[in-house]
Amino acid sequence: MHWQTSARAEQRHTTTLTTTDQHFSRIADTYRHFRTTDSEPITSIAKELKNLTRIEAIDIGCGTGRYDILLHKYLGDKLHLTCVDANVDMLAQLDKYLKELSISNCVSLYSKAENLAFQSNSFDCIFTFNAIHHFNLSEFLQESARILKSGGYLFIYTRLHGQNGRNIWGRYFPKFQQKETRLYTLSTLTQKVAAIPTLRIRSTEYFKYRRMLPLEQLVERVKAHHYSTFSLYSPEELEESITGFVDNIETEFNGAHWIRWFDEMTLFTIQKI
To answer: How many CB atoms lie within 10 A of CB 220?
Structure first.
């Protein structure tokens, strides 16, 4: 069920690329190299799904598949996964990755998160990792409720707006928190879930990760736009902000080679009733 190259090329030709599309097309080749993939939420998900003998699942906003590889590792052959993304270049990297690893129980599909071409009550669970800020959340939740089987799960792994303000970028990179208006607060996200009659939040799990990188690698990540937030800056504004970031880090960390900080994330386990 992998899309053929010609079909993806036609999709590219007939789709007007948004700023977000352009960002992900530009970084598709290097995305896995610069982004951190956390195993802790996958461990929690695997525990929740341990009693299922076959899992029909979909990962929406899968990107290059870095979390899909972990899902395959933890859930094994009982997982049958459809990997969905709205960027053809990211999906091309995913297909390449799956082929390299000889993973056959994952297939890829181009689709928007808000309009999924699947029958109602099709999936045991839905995953989405670091992606909901790119969706129309209300429409995505409605579609999720439609395609989930009764009793099925929606797992949302995301950084909340307040968590974003406490990480190294929110604290030290000029205008980062002001630019990033797409992330949800806890109250807004829970309200949007509550607005869907058949969905209930079963649990909310918070993660705190210790990170460490040299300053030059942090700057390299900014220049590579490893977060889409950096695509919201003009080129001149980004260069000026990099200079300010370096000054802030050198002042705060007294010129240390290794820069240490904490990242925070949240996993929502939502069930269709």
So the answer is: 13
